[in-house]
Design the sequence.
């Protein structure tokens, strides 16, 4: 048995190419089953996300060549002879690649955890469609263990990597549960919108939007299931707001200590979190010196996100070591070419091709 | 045997603390069962020690300085076990174990040993129920103030990280600042109520009124009453409340010397 992986991803294929090979969630099982019916292919799992489309297949001995799989993929997606940046991994390399993918090591945002669920869903769909058997069943079960192992034993998932994620992380470290948090948006810029959305997904309720253009405020408020207020009324909302996101185009600070001091007295020790995304800044930096006030501007948020991304990147070597450990542990590297016709303790000779090479 | 129990309990608290510090330094700390297990094991041996001493006195083991120290440490562990999960205060155990260890080691190294306890018990005779309740309430109140001291430190550490925008080190392991602030107020309230009970019961003890001990306890009561009064009427900024809680803890600590 040989394991192959054929695919393309965000590293070499732009979105215009990736979208042509995208397989919808509902079609995933069906596509896997169709692939498994191709001559020489015994089992198949199709993994399709916004960043990649990959075919994991098991073929019988060396009868099937990688070209056969590629031909099937080309035919399936009606790609003709068009030059596309496919990559092809065999046996141990294919297994290693799958481990990297499931661990988030091959993701655009290093260490992101969504991919783990996507791999699980792709496998479950293939399993339900009857496209898998012993080899891929065992491989994917091991993959889930390895994915968890790598995340647990490294810092690949540590720290927020986007401005929105940083805001959520900070808000949760200030307020704990965000369900009782009120969010006030002053200005309706794109980053403030996405940040407010991130907060809303973590339970933040009572989103109030204040914007110079009332139409835009109402539009955003409707999207967030919140309410819109006139721009001039934002100060009246300050005492009840827990998180304030400023993103106006005002040429000077619109909130200073004279606004915040009376608000803090009314809040009786409840913290106040300011997220200032505007340039020039909407909130006077002196506000951040007040006790119980946590103020972050766009640079502060971006620095934290960038630090996290760097930290994750520096963990990559360790993650690769962890994957190699797991490759050895599960017998993917221990087999020799001469043993390739035997069943390995875990899978059927997955690294036979590498060993032979 | 009681000293052995005390030694084992101390070792568990030290072990739990050292494990947490090593795990934190390695950057792979997770709130696991190990720290909790160490605290629970320590609690078991503390309880055995206090039980042994209780048998010596035929009363609540709060006669000697050693027993008082262990009793406060015991109260702290109980409060930690109740408070930690309620407020999801991760790392509370890590911060609690060194202070508990400090109390335990002070007890271990102090000159009060079993013979002294037996002699003291024989000299004083059996404690009456009101006196026992008075001492026990006061010591549990001290335990609550000690935990407020710990929560105050945790609050200021997390406040520092949040103010400076440093999302590293302990930041991810420390609980949300709002939870810490709530727990802090609750601990001071609990300590204050217990202390009030201890002072109230003191008036039922013959010869207690007008003593230096009661005077100090009243001073402490006024201090915490003022702190809570300002908090509930005007609302202190949480960082200021945390600083007061930390500084105020010096009073029960100093008073221990006199109360003993």
Sequence:
């Amino acid at each position: 048995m040989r394991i192959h992986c054929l695919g393309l991803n965000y590293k070499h294929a732009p979105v215009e190419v990736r979208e042509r090979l995208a397989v919808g969630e509902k079609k995933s099982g069906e596509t896997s089953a169709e692939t498994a019916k191709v001559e020489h292919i015994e089992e198949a799992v199709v993994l399709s996300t916004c960043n990649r489309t990959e075919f994991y297949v098991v073929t019988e001995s060396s009868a099937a060549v990688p070209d056969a799989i590629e031909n099937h993929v080309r035919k399936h997606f009606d790609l003709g002879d068009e030059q596309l940046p496919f990559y092809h991994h065999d046996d141990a390399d294919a297994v290693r690649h799958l481990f990297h993918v499931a661990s988030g090591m091959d993701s655009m945002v290093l260490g992101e955890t969504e991919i783990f669920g996507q791999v699980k869903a792709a496998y479950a769909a293939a399993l339900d469609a009857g496209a898998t058997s012993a080899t891929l069943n065992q491989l994917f079960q091991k993959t889930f263990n390895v994915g968890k192992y790598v995340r647990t034993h490294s810092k690949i998932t540590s720290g927020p990597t986007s401005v929105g994620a940083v805001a959520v992380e900070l808000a949760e470290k200030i307020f704990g549960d965000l369900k009782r948090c009120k969010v006030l948006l002053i200005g309706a810029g794109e980053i403030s919108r996405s940040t407010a959305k991130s907060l809303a997904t973590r339970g933040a309720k009572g989103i109030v939007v204040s914007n110079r253009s009332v139409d835009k405020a109402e539009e955003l408020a409707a999207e967030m299931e919140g309410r819109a207020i006139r721009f001039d009324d934002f100060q009246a909302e300050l005492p009840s707001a827990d998180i304030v996101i400023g993103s106006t185009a005002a040429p000077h600070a619109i909130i200073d200590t004279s606004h915040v001091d009376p608000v803090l007295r009314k809040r009786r020790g409840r913290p106040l979190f300011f997220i200032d995304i505007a340039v020039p800044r909407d909130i006077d930096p002196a506000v951040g010196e007040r006790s119980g006030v946590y103020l972050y501007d766009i640079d502060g948020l971006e620095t934290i996100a960038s630090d996290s991304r760097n930290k994750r990147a520096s963990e990559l070597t360790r993650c690769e070591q962890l994957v190699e450990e797991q490759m050895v542990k599960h017998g993917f590297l221990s087999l020799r070419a001469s043993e390739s016709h035997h069943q390995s303790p875990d899978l059927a000779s997955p690294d036979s091709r590498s060993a032979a090479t | 045997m009681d000293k052995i129990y005390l030694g084992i309990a101390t070792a568990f608290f030290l072990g739990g603390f050292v494990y947490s510090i090593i795990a934190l330094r390695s950057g792979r700390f997770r709130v696991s069962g190990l720290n909790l297990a160490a605290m629970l094991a320590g609690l078991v041996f503390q309880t055995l020690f206090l039980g042994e001493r209780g048998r010596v006195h035929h009363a609540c083991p709060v006669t000697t300085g050693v027993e008082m120290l262990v009793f406060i440490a015991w109260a702290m562990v109980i409060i930690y076990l109740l408070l930690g999960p309620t407020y999801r205060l991760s790392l509370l155990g890590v911060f609690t174990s060194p202070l508990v260890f400090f109390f335990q080691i002070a007890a271990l190294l102090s000159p009060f040993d079993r013979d002294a306890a037996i002699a003291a018990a024989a000299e004083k005779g059996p404690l009456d129920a009101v006196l026992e309740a008075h001492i026990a309430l006061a010591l549990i109140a001290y335990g609550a103030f000690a935990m407020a001291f710990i929560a105050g430190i945790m609050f200021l550490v997390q406040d520092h990280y949040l103010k400076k925008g440093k999302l590293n080190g302990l930041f991810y392991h420390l609980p949300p600042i709002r939870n810490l602030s709530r727990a802090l107020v609750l601990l001071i309230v609990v300590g204050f109520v217990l202390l009030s009970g201890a002072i109230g019961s003191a008036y039922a003890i013959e010869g207690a009124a007008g003593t230096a001990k009661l005077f100090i306890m009243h001073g402490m009561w006024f201090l915490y009453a003022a702190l809570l009064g300002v908090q509930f009427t005007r609302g202190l900024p949480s960082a200021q409340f945390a600083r007061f809680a930390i500084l105020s803890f010096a009073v029960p600590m100093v008073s221990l010397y006199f109360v003993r």
